[in-house]
Structure formats: structure tokens, C-alpha cells
Amino acid sequence: MLDSVPSFATLVSELAKLPGIGRKTASRLAFFILKQPPEQAEALAAAIKSLKEKVRFCSHCFQMTEHDFCSICMDPRRDGSLLCIVEEPQDVVAIERSRSFQGLYHVLHGALSPLDGIGPDALKIPELKKRLMDGSVKEVIIATNFNVKGETTALYLARLIRPLNVRVTRLAHGIPLGSDLEYIDEATVGRAVTARQEF
After folding, report:
1. Does residue 32 carry a pLDDT above 70?
2. CATH topology of domain 2-54
């Protein structure tokens, strides 16, 4: 029945392309938008249009910005000798939210995946290597995801960076705060035991 209303069906189809949104949720969102005053629908459309027109990637770290350089790269209070490598721009947001890191970032825009044809040149790895050549970076923290692609990328980056006389560290991983050991999977417990620290 809804297919008989082409504009509604088109919106549902477009919304369903968003990650984590199935056709049912897309239909609910379309109905919600339909019930809103015209100004709200226009504001949503304008926000999407503005995002696509104005947002680009920082010329230095490849994080989102509306200028040539992002606010983090332009902040003189940040420690330029400390560089955190992440897979995606949203990873920068997660780390910044923790308020635990005061260095700079380098966003790869993905992870190595040879089976999918994603090699170093498909990511921002050549730019990373060039960035490390000036000698200002003393430590690199590899903050790729803890999955097969992220681990593969981390190993590749460590091998690439170590010969440049730059300290290479990896985000710690293990048991989340507030967890009971009995409910944690074996691999996580094993990593936590292996990476134990002085107390």
C-alpha cells in the first residue's frame, strides 16, 4: 500500500540505507517526519545539505572539519610529540570524550583488509609515514579496533613505525570496570592476565 505513495516510499528506501536502520525503522522515521511541521523537515534537509557541502577532512590529521585544519590540530595546548592513530573520525570523538588524551590524531579512514582489497595505499598510511618523517612525533599510540582487521592494521603499523625511532604503544584492553570475572569471555580474561601491570 505504501508503495502507492512514491515520495513516501522513496524516503523509506533512502532511510533504510543508513547503518542500523531496517525498513521497519525507516518507515517509522518517515511517518515521524511526515507528522512534523514543514519547518522541521526543511531544517533536517538543510542540515544534511550543509553537512555534505561544508564538512571535509583536516589536511593534517584527516579528522572532520569545516576548515583546512581541525580544531585539535590548531590547538597549541596539544602535545605534538604524541600521536594517536585511529580507524575512523568517530573514534576521535570517543577518545576525546574520555578527556584522557592531549596529543594529536591521525585518522586512517578504515582498516587493512587484504581480502576486501584494502591495502595501505587505500588508507591514510602513506600520509602517516610522511608525517612521522620530520621527527617531531616521539610516541605513537595505535588505537585501532580490537577485531581481526584492527589487529592486522596495528601489527602492520607497528612494523612500519618502529624503524623510524618512534615509540609504539597500543591501547590497553581487558576487563571493563564494574564487571564480574565469571561473565567475561576467555579471550578477554586471557589478554587481561597477559597484559597485567604492577600494582
Report:
1. yes
2. Helicase, Ruva Protein; domain 3 (1.10.8)
